[in-house]
Amino acid sequence: MGAWDSGPFDNDTAADWCGDLNDADVSKRPNLVREALTRAAGEVGYLDADVACEAIAAAAILAAQRPAGQPITSPYAPDFLRGGGRWDVPDDLAALAVRAIDRIVAADSEWRELWEDADTEGASEAFDAVRELRKVLAA
């Protein structure tokens, strides 16, 4: 995971995925978000960090659209959502995002292992950021 910070968009995989989402036809964006979340939530084996990073970015995008969500300010997020951009998302995606997050922080997740092995303040911030996303999405 080429991470340079602990935020949901602050790694190579998430930034690339956000670029693809930004470039996608508007009608295809909901499916791209759903696919990223479904891959993570549905993994029954060891969860790859890249799959987790895409799902975390998707969850952050959804959380920003919720009443308690924070606006997206990261320069690595999709352009159309930065600075408080709004997007109508299907209602069922929040519950799917919660399931994806639960899977990402489970014991057999490479994302979790990489951050635990890092043993830095950034690791604590990464886990806190994901917990906050879950809280907003579950509300």
What are the SSEs and their pairings?
Blueprint: H1 12-23, H2 29-41, H3 49-64, H4 93-104, H5 110-118, H6 121-138
Helix pairs in contact: 1-3, 2-3, 2-4, 3-4, 3-5, 3-6, 4-6, 5-6
Q: What key phrases describe this protein's structure?
A:
139 residues; mainly alpha; 6 helices; 0% strand
Describe this structure in words.
By secondary structure, the protein is an all-alpha fold. The chain has one domain. It is built from six helices and no strands. It is globular, with a radius of gyration of 14 Å.
What structural class results from the helix and strand content?
mainly alpha
Strand-residue proportion:
under 5%
Q: Per the principal axes of the C-alpha atoms, what is the gross shape?
A: globular
Number of strands: 0
Cα-based radius of gyration, to the nearest Å: 14 Å
How many H/I helical runs? 6
* Helix coverage percent: 55-70%
SSE order in H/E notation?
A: HHHHHH
Kindly give the count of domains: 1
Q: Termini separation (Å)?
A: 30 Å
Major sheet size, sense and barrel closure:
none
Roughly what is the average pLDDT, rounded to an integer? 92
Low-confidence regions: none
